[in-house]
Amino acid sequence: MRDRTEAVRDRGVTDHVLVCTHDRDSEYACCAGAGGEAVLDAVRTWLRDRDLFWSGVAVAETSCLGLCSTDGAAVAIHPRGHWYADVTSEDVPELLTREFGTRTIDEE
Asked: Rounded to two decimals, what is the model's pTM?
């Protein structure tokens, strides 16, 4: 096991947006079936449009976050400890603006 904390800090990562895209072969709700991939794409697009994609805000596709729904994907933002359910791609601009404001890479 290697502790990579310093390497991540050296890259300037301060926040991590986790988007569930988990798929389940069952009758139960899952983020893949509720647009998880579209939400992930919308997060990446929002960051790219602001030149923030390779900034202090990292984004990752993840498995189940435990907020399963048929109405949208689960998103967690750390270390802020904010958890969202039922997120659609249309919700992403408002959600990320609320979390990160309107900053760009020049303002970091």
From this structure: 0.86
Phi, psi of 59 (to 5 degrees): -130, 140
Query: Residue 12 phi/psi, 5° resolution?
Result: 85, 10
The mean pLDDT value for 93-102 works out to 92
Q: Which two tokens stand for residue 7?
A: 């390497």
Is the bond preceding 79 in cis, omega lying within 30 degrees of 0?
yes
Model pLDDT for residues 15-73, shown as the tens digit of each residue: 999 999 999 877 788 999 899 999 999 999 999 998 887 788 999 999 999 998 889 99
Q: What is the DSSP letter of 3?
A: -
Q: Which domains does the chain have, with CATH numbers?
A: 12-99 (3.40.30.10)
In this structure, which amino acid lies at residue 50? R
Specify the long-range contacts of residues 101-105, CB closer than 8 Å, at least 24 apart: 102/50, 103/50, 103/52, 104/50, 104/51, 104/52, 105/50, 105/51, 105/52, 105/55
